[in-house]
Amino acid sequence: MQAHYGVDTLDPALTLRKLWVLLQRLPPGAWSDPTSEASWSIEAYLLAAAVDRMAELSWITATVNSKKGQGPKRPKPIPRPGVTAKKQDDGLGSLMAAMKEVTT
What we know:
Blueprint: H1 2-5, H2 16-24, H3 42-64, H4 92-103
């Protein structure tokens, strides 16, 4: 809060209502918990999805043009906040969840 608004949260003059309003209007990426889905902006999700697609296209091209069984390993997607490696999707599910969170 101090970094974005210059407001000291320990100030006794700060009301709970004002604190609530300031928290609701924090920009994406301002949350202190980096594992929260709210810590990434929609642009960050889109960029991660684009990078993942480009990596997959490069992998497909290299695999098609290499000898059988000698192609490179499939690229891993960029880790997204709040998503475990086993549940990692193509980024679009995380993007849709983030968009719903922003619009509500």
